[in-house]
C-alpha cells in the first residue's frame, strides 16, 4: 500500500472526501515529524511508537573495494509496533 492507496482507504472508511483524507494524513505526518525533530517520542497506544536514537560514528567497509571508510554519526528514527498491531499481523 502506498500513500495514495492509504488516502483512498481512509476516505472510504471514514466517509469523507479524498481531499479531506489527504489533508488529515499530511497533517498527522507533519506533526509526527515535528515531534521527532524536537527529540520527543510519539506513541499511538496499541499501534506503536516512534522515537529518535543517536547512532555513533563508526568505521565501515566499502564492499566493492574493501577499503575502510568513516561513517558519520547521525540520528535515526525507530519504530516499535504496539501490542494490537503485533497481534493483528500474527
UniProtKB/TrEMBL annotation:
Q: Pfam families recorded for this chain?
A: Bac_DNA_binding (PF00216)
InterPro entries attached here? Hist_DNA-bd, IHF-like_DNA-bd_dom_sf
A Gene Ontology molecular function term of the record = structural constituent of chromatin
Transmembrane residue ranges: none
Q: Which Gene3D superfamilies match?
A: IHF-like DNA-binding proteins
GO BP term (any one): chromosome condensation
A GO term from the CC aspect: cytosol
What are the protein's UniProt keywords? DNA condensation, DNA-binding
Keyword DNA-binding carried by entry: yes
Q: Which family does it belong to?
A: Belongs to the bacterial histone-like protein family.
The name of this protein is: HU family DNA-binding protein
Q: Which organism is it from?
A: Hanstruepera neustonica
